[in-house]
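Exercise 7. Given the encoded structure of a 324-residue chain, write a plausible sequence.
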């Protein structure tokens, strides 16, 4: 219930496992003023795209004539429509103005982008900026002591006797630098603290072990099979870190929501295709990049983040994926 003429702060959270969502409110614009707990320069849009795990703070001006208006969300999906993989459900709720009037029937429904509109899906992400003022300084590292390039992939993993429900009896798995994480029986931090050997290795590669055209339309089936391991990358305390997450087109490709426990990071760059370490850093935003803790790597694209490793503990990059 809203009052005409007032402005409301909405906190919108995507609690989905894997799917990004287009969200809009009929006949109303929304102004994004924060993401993941950090202020942003005001960004006014008819809709937002919010990826799994992300939080958006938006201002809603109740400036339309009193009535009922749908707020609605649909899935942004790259699944082929003809294979009946895409769920075209539209979820709705109603913004209701307070007062005495006869509401429209049915309520007004917002216009949302097509479910597979990739350009629409990145419009908000591409436009976010930190406040970067005297009260809210932007402390993005201008130089880095540690540079990492991580491929993020959807892989096909074999099952005993082809017993899983994925293609050819396999199951889906996620990998970073072609390593699918194997959960140990002893907590990694506990093993580190008590110097217990054999729980994990500290040789997680800084660059992809195998370099190929990550975003090619057709990739050898050999690359679909990841290795498994409990590998750790140890960072020096207070080191400045840059990670480039490079998406691949393995198993048809996917968007990859990435979250970094214990830290927020600055999103200094992103793009489609293969990351070019000579060209792309020249386009980084080191003035007012958004400060977030969850970002989505576009299908067949890349995202670059920077942060200071100042929170002792285990940083775990999580990639959303589906097991079948």
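Solution.
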């Amino acid at each position: 219930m809203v009052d005409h003429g007032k402005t409301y702060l909405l906190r919108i959270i995507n609690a989905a496992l894997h799917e990004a969502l287009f969200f809009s409110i009929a006949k109303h614009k929304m102004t994004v003023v924060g993401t993941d707990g950090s202020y942003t320069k005001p960004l006014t849009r008819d809709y937002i795209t919010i990826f799994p795990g992300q939080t958006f703070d938006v201002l809603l001006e109740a400036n339309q004539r009193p009535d009922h208006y749908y707020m609605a969300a649909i899935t942004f999906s790259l699944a082929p429509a003809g294979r009946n993989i895409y769920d075209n459900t539209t979820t709705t709720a109603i913004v209701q103005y307070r007062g005495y009037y006869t509401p429209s029937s049915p309520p007004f429904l917002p216009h949302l982008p097509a479910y597979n509109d990739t350009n629409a899906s990145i419009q908000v992400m591409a436009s976010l900026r930190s406040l970067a003022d005297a009260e809210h300084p932007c402390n993005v590292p201008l130089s880095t002591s540690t540079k990492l390039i991580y491929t993020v992939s959807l892989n096909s993993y074999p099952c005993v006797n082809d017993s899983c429900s994925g293609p050819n009896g396999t199951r889906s798995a996620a990998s970073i630098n072609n390593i699918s994480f194997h959960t140990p029986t002893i907590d990694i931090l506990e093993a580190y603290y008590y110097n217990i050997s054999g729980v994990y290795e500290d040789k997680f590669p800084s660059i992809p072990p195998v370099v190929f055209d990550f975003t090619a339309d057709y990739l050898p089936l050999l690359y679909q099979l990841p290795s498994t391991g409990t590998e750790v990358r140890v960072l020096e305390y207070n080191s400045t870190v840059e990670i480039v997450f490079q998406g691949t087109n393995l198993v048809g490709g996917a968007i990859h929501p990435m979250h970094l426990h214990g830290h927020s990071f600055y999103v200094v760059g992103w793009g489609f295709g293969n990351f070019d370490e000579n060209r792309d850093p020249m386009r980084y935003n080191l003035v007012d990049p958004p400060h977030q803790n969850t970002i989505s790597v576009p299908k067949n694209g890349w995202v670059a983040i920077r942060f200071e490793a100042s929170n002792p503990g285990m940083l775990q990059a999580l990639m959303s994926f589906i097991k079948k």
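Remark. The chain is about 5% helix and 35% strand. Students should compare their own answers with the one above.
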